[in-house]
Amino acid sequence: MSALSPDEVLNAVARILIFEDRAITFLCTQDEVSIRFPKTRRLAAYLSVPHYYVIPVLAAMEEDGLVTRTERVGVSTNAKGTALLFSRIMEHYPAEVKQILGKDLLSAIRGRICEE
User: Which residue, 110, 106, 109, 114, is CA-closest to 28?
Assistant: First the structure.
């Protein structure tokens, strides 16, 4: 089994949020907007790999400044990761995102993410 890449993980996160959850959980603070990832075991199941294959990829993504991992809370993007994941979602699934968020919320979120 070959090693997972951050791109594969981000693509899986995007597909889970858009097509399975039909929801995107944002956390908006004064400093940034973050997107909550699915639980690690769910992500691993979606990718058809053991969960311990996903953990090192998430650790590498944390080192690269894309995500923050918090024990017992989960994984969420930081400003850099939010911009990357959201742009990927918008590039591949714009109609679905608009259905989920609605035009006004999509515009507001896009504005916040682009200004960071």
Answer: 109
